[in-house]
Amino acid sequence: MPPHLPKTHLLLRPPLFRLKAGEKGFVRVVRSGKKLPDDRESMFWLNIKGIPATEYVPDKNVVQFAINSKIKLIYRPAALKGNTPESYAEKLQWGKEGTSVTVKNNSPLYMNFSQVSLNGKNISGAWFAAPFSTLKIPVQSSLSATGKKEITWSVINDYGMSGKKYTAIIQ
Prior knowledge:
Pfam families: PapD_C, PapD_N. It is found in: Periplasm. This is Pili assembly chaperone. Its main location: periplasm. Residues 103-160 form the Pili assembly chaperone C-terminal domain. The chain is an all-beta fold. It folds into two domains: 10-80, no CATH class; 85-170, Sandwich (Immunoglobulin-like), CATH 2.60.40.10. The protein is built from one helix and twelve strands. A hairpin with a 2-residue loop joins β5 (93-97) and β6 (100-105). The longest helix is centred in the middle third of the chain and has 5 residues, at 85-89. It is extended.
């Protein structure tokens, strides 16, 4: 790819900067012009690393921490304006496959789960189902027993808050 063409869909402005103590910085996320699907959301990860400034002091022991933050960025095309995760959350299709719970997302949106539980027991993890895909969530032996299983879930809304809880029975 020629060096003047973008290699990614999003660009950061500025990509790197220095802050003094007490200062605030802002990063602007800009589309590069590279085409994105217009029938579904696209998800990207923004990794931000904060490295503290240091002064060399001879013969002194110091402990220093660097902070790394990983942030989900979800791009929703104009064709999906008005669609929200809450409007599709109840339509998710749950099932089981071996030692995993499966969730089929037939929507054009990412479903980011704030909570998933099986028979009242929370399934830990940061789970999300991509548009038009099936997610497998590994669980402990609770699926091996016969009978109905109750799955409860809630999705994260556009404001980053946990939405309404939904329940389904899986066989």
